[in-house]
Amino acid sequence: MTVLDPGLIQDHNHRLLRHVASDYEHLGEQLARRHIDIDAVRQKVAAFGVAIPSWGVGTGGTRFARFPGPGEPRNVFDKLQDCGVIWQLARATPGVSLHIPWDQCSDWPALRAVADGYGLGFDAINSNTFSDQPGQAHSYKFGSLSHTDAGTRAQAVAHNIECVAIGQRIGSKALTVWVGDGSNFPGQQHLRRAFERYLDSARQIYAALPDDWRMFVEHKICEPAFYGTVIQDWGSSYLAASALGPKAQCLVDLGHHAPNVNIEMIVARLIAAGKLAGFHFNDSKYGDDDLDAGSIAPYRLFLVFNELVAAAHEKLAFEPAYMLDQSHNVTDPIESLMTSAAQVQRSYAQALIVERSLLDAAQQANDALLASQTLKRGFETDVTPILQRVRLDAGGAIDPVAVYRASGYRQRVAKDRPASAGSGGGIV
Ligand code: PSV
Ligand code: MN
Ligand code: MN
Question: Which portions of this protein are annotated as coiled-coil regions (predicted)?
Fold first, then answer.
């Protein structure tokens, strides 16, 4: 079942077909000179998918305000429908990642059936122990999995185990755990004991994981704990994932590091250690800005993919999960998510066309300039025709934003979906 009329996509594509064909042919010639087969690259890009976070389809916000957009999703079924539009047009986002309890549902198998209908599956499921829910017995004001109070920790553990149970009903295979636990004053918290308590709680969650599940430990430098966060960096994440066992791995959200941190180095280390869970893609200039992927630092995104492609080239065993994690404050989330998914695909394609043996040889010979030029040639090549062909071949739109705007989808759903001032999980 498609949300939009496929005829509209075909009409738009028809006008651009000739240009895409000649641009693709020209790029194919360029790449052939570098001994790269464009069709092989295209097939790899076509097989790549990045999940949509259910909270991403609602308008985001900041601590200052949220400006609701028209036709925002009212519930998880509306969110799935929006994800269906993104998937239909951009053909890069086959998975949806739910957040509990932001996503409420009384019939999970029914939700799964609806997702199936759109051709969507469910990616990792996210727990929430960073905000209090109505009627909750214990508050998370001073932490959750690492709280000093055993009852609060037990409540947070139980919530995560419930998330796993929900995930099992919809076909998820991983639980992502991000906690806001930490302290705002030096001295507020015993730093070592807080981590020990976190580990003790995380072990109980880990013990409840089904055999074929993974647990993604997501670190973040700060916020809401602005002095010390319990899982503040990949070091703490790695310690936790190692202590837990092989099913626990470290998730890298691009925005969760200090400015200038070399994220691709972290990725390389985690791959080597067999502990890379996957990614939350977004971009930032200052901190956890949650801007659209590649909108500020596309070279950095490319360098992350370069590590992934290099590791795959060297046949290292790893299976990262890819997801966007952004906050859309001034754009239509559907447009941002389609554009960001294409940006992630672009970085992957650019990394795929790096001449690996030339790069290896330059590195081996300590030829810094040639190595840097070789790497950069991948980034500087316009791979747009590959992305356009991938979408076209899969029945998607050559120009997803243009088709989306022409479809009038947002105006149409706005008639049934009243603007709401609540956060609805949009503020992250
Ligand atoms: C908070 O920083 C955050 O944005 C994390 O990145 C999580 O992945 C997300 O919220 C949802 O829990
Ligand atoms: Mn994240
Ligand atoms: Mn974040």
Answer: none
